Amino acid sequence: MPTGIVGLVRTPELAERARAGRKRERTGTGPRGSMFKTTLQNPVLRKRATQFGRLVRRSAVTPRTGQIHKPKLANHGDMGVTFIGHASFFVQIGSQNVLLDPNFARWLFVLKRLRQPGVRLRDLPSIDLVLVTHAHFDHLHRPSLRAIVQHTRRRRGRPPIIVVPNQVFDLVSDLGFDDVVELDWWNSYRHRGLTVTHVPSRHWGARILKDSHRGYGGYVLRDPEHSIYHAGDTAYFPGFREIGRRLAPELALLPIGAYNPPSFRSVHASPADATRAFLDLKSRWMVPMHYGTFRLSHEPMEEPLQLLQAEARSAGVEDRVVVLEEGVTRFF
Question: Are 185 and 217 in contact (CB under 8 A)?
Fold first, then answer.
């Protein structure tokens, strides 16, 4: 195996990790048990729970909008990008079909999805790779992942491979993927001429309150002709310059929402932060994401795109920022 290419071989130790992780999800050490008990006992968490309750109530009375489209398939050599919504993308690169942070849920527990997924899973071709940036419920959606496995198995008889950050194996190992690949920052996985490199971000990886050991980050995908960077969830940090210097992604998918109150900017990017990151990366194109689908914070739903337009105009890059309609494929 070439230097820097990291794969994951199933072992009894990994199987035990998977069983332990699923037990935490099901029992009092998982999100239905200790997480809620701890929230009630902690005044800071109680305040956050109250704020979240307001978001839930506002979302519940907001009509769901958006249209569903059939994605266009790329010709050999093209890179096609289809925005599904939130941080979910269908990317065609290196003659392979890749899903990043796929989430087709209409509800995320009690939080209503406010924009339709741009495509139906049944309208997608068989999937080669699924990439998950971190374990948060809006990015690692187990029902969507299970449905992708079933969809691809029906179409070609074999499920896709999933790539996850380090210490996320146990959350996806029981879903039926052909293989699970865990990566640390700056490690890569090569799949039929497509190289996937896991890169740093400024965020956190815990799915519940007591599993902060889990990894998180973004990915750069590269074939001989194209490259694309999905930042995952992140605040602005100097690492964007290093990602640009080391990997020079042609297209950057950057988050622009969930920044209000201002304290959220310690883990999420505002439109100004995303514009600054784009300049640091020196990418040719930017596509915004992580806005408009779920009400995760308190800025108006339409504000992120409005602010991004102003920031891009001020920075002189307005013609290089491409806002994708959900479900409409763009070729780069």
Answer: yes
